[in-house]
Amino acid sequence: MSDKYNVEAAEILASEAQHLPISEAAPIYEQLLATFPTAAKYWKQYVEAHMAVNNDDATKQLFSRCLLNCLHIPLWRCYIRFIRKVNEKKGVEGHEETRKAFDFMLNYVGADIASGPVWMEYITFLKSLPAVNAQEESQRMTAVRKAYQRAIVTPTHHLEQLWKDYENFENSVSRALAKGLLSEYQPKYNSARAVYRERKKYVDEIDWNVLALPPTGSQKEELQWMAWKRVLAFEKGNPQRIDSASSNKRIAFTYEQCLMYLYHYPDIWYDYATWHAKSGSIDTAIKVFQRALKALPDSEVLRYAYAELEESRGAIQPAKKIYESLLGDGVNATALAHIQFIRFLRRTEGVEAARKYFIDARKSPNCTYHVYVAYAMMAFCLDKDPKIAHNIFEAGLKRFMHEPGYILEYADFLSRLNDDRNIRALFERALSSLPPEESVEVWKRFTQFEQTYGDLASMLKVEQRRKEAFSRTGEEGTSALEGSLQDVVARYSFMDLWPCSSNDLDHLARQEWLANNVNKKVEKSGLPNGTGLIDKGSTGPTTISNPSAKIVLPDTSRMVLYDPRQKPGGSGFLSSAPAAVVPAISSSLSTPTAKLVGGGSTNTLDEILKAAPPALVAFVASLPSVSGPSPDVDVVLSICLQSNIPTAQADKSTTLPTPGTSELSGSSKSHPIPNAKSTRDRQTGKRKGIDRQEEDDTTTVQSLPLPRDVFRIRQLQLQKARGGTSSQQNGSVSYGSAISGELSGSTS
Questions:
Q1: Whole-angstrom distance, CA of residue 252 vs CA of residue 12
Q2: Is the distance from CB of 185 to CB of 167 less than 8 angstroms?
Q3: Residue 617 to residues 160, 295, 605, 694, 706: CA-CA distances in angstroms?
Q4: 103 in the Ramachandran plot: left (φ > 0), alpha (ψ -120 to 50) or beta?
Q5: Most CB atoms closer than 10 Å: which of 139, 432, 545, 607?
Q6: pTM for the full predicted model
Q7: Measured between alpha carbons, how far is 112 from 196 in angstroms, rounded to an integer?
Q8: pLDDT surpassing 60 at residue 14
Q9: Nearest alpha-carbon partner for 469 in 499, 434, 502, 497
Q10: At 743, phi and psi to the nearest 5?
Q11: How far is residue 540's CA from residue 563's CA, in Å, rounded to a whole number?
């Protein structure tokens, strides 16, 4: 397979192998099982292929390879079929071998929620055993009773059926004895049944048909991981309150089943091993770690965890072998492996052993500056003598002068010694050799050092040198050499304390961006809208001023910044709309040359309003001024309820929308109103019965006072302007008070 873990290709191969002779199918199965060693379905197919040709020796070998790592009921039932087939003609000896096989199987998978058929098969087998005399009959009945009593306290799918069978069995043997035994096991059965119901909820979330794949971060994998975690947490809680030995056995069984599907997850292996260690089974935990390293040989973290367990129990030599396996021949060893082995030697064999290994490790081609820093700080902390650590840092400086990280670590060490003279010398040596693009953090640390230890003149001098270094390679050019208020903010800030407010920081960040892009074309720039991007961990506020060229940015030259603190009449969008735009609408656009925000004029608005319906024009004319991008919903509803919005031109005199609860509920039906006065009279009687309900329904819209008096003034002006026209229309209806919610009408 081109892709080692290609599930579709694996399924195709397994399907093809089923139709091939065993001699041709065996290599295919071996290939599949080398990739998916816990795939119980492939093991089952492989075993059944050998059983079909009566290849008993090969079948036994396969079972010995797979059974203990694949606690899967169908595979184990296949094992029982094989054992019964082999021993069916051996008489009493064969029966005993079969019984041992059943006990072996139930000892491993008897706690499975799907093990009910296995228990039933076992009990049926015990009942079928021949009994020559009364003693053998008594032994058989005792064995059957014990099997039933183990089965009815195990939460399985067939628990209720097993209890019924147990009741029938005891009653068939002795009713007098059955009453006492059943009353004794009834509470245990009830507890198992309750646990089964809870257990089933967690088990049903697991997909039992997936193959063990390395984690890729897909949602399906994460859901399976979470489902197994919930099952493990449920079992660890011991919901059935059984003895600790039985509870630990179930937890171990659940972990083993989990590893069949999460075989490549190091966290599951680690949890399983540490659970054994905490339970007191250190030897079992070590075996789990050994299995884990066999499954995940490239996992360094599991090796460290394994070595830690060995070291914690005093097994120094086994732990040392694990570290040596990480180092290998030393050529391909990582810097972290060197560092951890140095620390291990210091803990177990002393500082001298660690020093000897460091001398050898620094000759490795993969030795990075981290090894020098780790050993130098270890020597400084343990020996209490800075001279040794200083010599190590100086030796490393000859090799890692080009590494900014090493320079910073060396500077930190000198800062602990209050050696300000050598710190300045170190910064000067480093900055003379580092290219400007790699010296950003070094300059930053140098500036911080001068702010702490230097005087004002040296502090300003270092900042100016820093600007000159970056101006030679940056795009800002000479503008970067100019001082700014941001430099003052950087000098007089400390940790998360700033000499200005967050709004001032945002403003400074925006001004910096504008200054850096003042000479650039508008098409190639994007004005940052909103809060500036501040890096408060640096020496001053900085912005991201170089967006990727691949990002499609909006045309910010046409954007207008929104400021909620704008006053009417300002330059903000909609700030002058109520004073200029709305009166122009209500007065048939009497000021067509008034300028609008954004460079347009009311001529454009004229064209829009000519094509708009009269109802929309009337509605817009009655809208209030708005402070912000979104108007108050209650305000808009109040205006709508008070406005005489014109209806369609056709059939004006007979159909108008009836105001009331139907309008509030969104109904669009229109009803004829032949006489508004009679309509009001009819509504008076009805309103008496539903007055309280109407008050509740209209409280939020009609019963509240208008938010601003300017709305009432504008409404009165509009009514006055249309007063003569509306009085001449037959059957015209006008809405009444928005507070009362009543109709007022006039007919000729």
A1: 34
A2: no
A3: 75, 75, 11, 31, 22
A4: alpha
A5: 545
A6: 0.67
A7: 11
A8: yes
A9: 434
A10: -95, 140
A11: 26
